[in-house]
């Protein structure tokens, strides 16, 4: 059975994006790319909200072909072409997409079935609105949060829609030279 893993950047005060969706405060560099790539390359199913998916689709299919493409661009583009993508959307047409499953209105039941049918992890990339919907349905099993050393004051929260307490266990931390800290938590069953 697969686990859904939230993979997201956050500000120190818990926001995934600014008030207008801005993410220019997120720090990424080769060290963070390499760390994330090691984790991502072990996964063969990626989960996105529609907005994040459309951003990914506008870049990754041709990123490796661009002049001056970085090592990260080439590696991630190759992974993106082969990974099975699952998108939460009521508007996208699955028939126009390659290696992609679109899940609409009954997403909770469809994701429970996906978890049953998947061995390994299902990475939920960014997608704060999708994360909120999954948290409301108690579908997230693990969180990898990249905490950036910045306070936004307001914006789109990482965690929203939680209907009941969700106990977590800190599994691992990793501190990057730029001051970003990755916190890995697993969901715990309450006793």
UniProtKB/TrEMBL annotation:
Pfam families, per the entry: RibD_C (PF01872)
Gene3D superfamilies according to UniProt: Dihydrofolate Reductase, subunit A
InterPro entries attached to this UniProt entry: DHFR-like_dom_sf, RibDG_C, Riboflavin_Biosynth_HTPR
GO MF entry, a single one: 5-amino-6-(5-phosphoribosylamino)uracil reductase activity
Domain Bacterial bifunctional deaminase-reductase C-terminal, chain residue ranges per copy: 4-181
One BP term from GO: riboflavin biosynthetic process
Protein name, per record: Dihydrofolate reductase
Species assigned in the record: Chitinophaga parva
């Amino acid at each position: 059975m697969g686990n859904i893993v939230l993979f997201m950047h956050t500000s120190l005060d818990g926001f995934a994006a600014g008030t207008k969706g801005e993410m220019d405060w997120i720090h990424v560099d080769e060290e963070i790319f390499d760390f994330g790539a090691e984790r991502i390359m072990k996964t063969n199913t990626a989960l996105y909200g529609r907005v994040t998916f459309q951003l990914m689709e506008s870049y990754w299919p041709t990123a490796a072909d661009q002049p001056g493409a970085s090592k990260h661009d080439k590696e991630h583009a190759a992974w993106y072409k082969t990974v099975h993508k699952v998108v939460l959307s009521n508007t996208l047409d699955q028939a126009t997409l390659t290696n992609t499953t679109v899940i609409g209105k009954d997403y909770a039941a469809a994701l429970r079935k996906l978890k049953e049918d998947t061995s390994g992890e299902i990475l939920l990339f960014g997608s704060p609105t999708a994360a909120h919907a999954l948290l409301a349905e108690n579908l997230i099993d693990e969180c990898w949060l990249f905490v950036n050393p910045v306070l936004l004051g307001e914006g789109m929260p990482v965690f929203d829609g939680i209907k009941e307490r969700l106990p977590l266990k800190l599994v691992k931390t990793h501190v990057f030279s730029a001051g970003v800290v990755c916190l890995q938590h697993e969901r715990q069953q309450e006793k």
